[in-house]
Amino acid sequence: MPDDEAKNPDPLLNSADAAAYLGVTEAWVRRARCNKKLDCVKVGHHTRYRRSVLDAFIEANTDVAGSR
């Protein structure tokens, strides 16, 4: 995988890989996509997620202690 990362620093992940990356279920990823919480890329009939989009989602939803 490190060699693949050097070639493509922003890989497209399938639903299973995106779910594993976020630590959630595939069903959650699909619901988030349908609810417009996660942007996706359609490749034919396949749905893929850019890792940079997942990273941005994590940053946008990180709750900093004392910020509320």
TrEMBL record:
A Pfam family assignment: HTH_17
Organism annotation: Egicoccus halophilus
Domain Helix-turn-helix: 12-61
Protein name: Helix-turn-helix domain-containing protein
